[in-house]
């Protein structure tokens, strides 16, 4: 837990400071790590020579492991890059079908069914493909409001790519011409300090050029003038409202050096973690398996996995209860005997995809 808190403080401070201050912060952290190393050396000094030799041998094994892990990460990065290139033509074919630039020939059975349908309003491609995919995922569906639906029908494609300077990844949302905003492409970038143990530094999004009266992230509030006021016209104010398009205006920590209150820092941390989860879900789940989210098949797979996990948990709990009953029975038979509970009921938790701490 203490390590998590340290990482949390690091991310909050790093995001809040400018470049010069960050350099100073890194040096200060290095000094702190050296001091911690000194404290750890004190622990080793208190060990007997034999035990210390064993610990040194373990550290040597750990170093060998770290070298292998570094090679694994290098090879994994190359393998991922190779397959991302291989995925590209498949994504291009999907784009053409979804947007109607490539037509698929109908089978004889489909042709017969098509003959009886009304041709007056024949639709192009696969209407509302990406909107439906986003609505069928638990994470992204919470962000899509009823007011967003019409605008998201113009979404033609979602792409992602890795970025090296700074490290992280970028999402691209390609839109057809629409009555809501001028942008053809909306982007969202995530900058991380460490890719293998993602520590989110900041997120950046496109500024949306809304057409007058079409902004989906704000709503108009009209208030009646106060009694006795000479102005009889209603007062018009704008208020932020829920919308998927707020995703492109992510929460961020202030750039100045002012101290951030703990409650405020925790709130921002939570919002940034939530924002990263949405982005990572789009990158890792929705983009590669968009058709499965469109048809709903991906929902069934996830529900099956969740049910399977819950069944495993219930079986473990039943086994624990059976063990406890058996232990209780043995304890009752042994007068003056000791009962011992073996094995705590622990549930493994999946670590967060990104620590924004």
From TrEMBL:
One of its GO terms (molecular function) is histone binding. GO terms for biological process: double-strand break repair via homologous recombination. It comes from the Eukaryota. Keywords: Chaperone, Coiled coil, Cytoplasm, Nucleus. Residues 26-85 form a coiled coil. Residues 302-357 are annotated as: Disordered. Signal peptide: none annotated. Belongs to the nucleosome assembly protein (NAP) family. This is Nucleosome assembly protein 1.
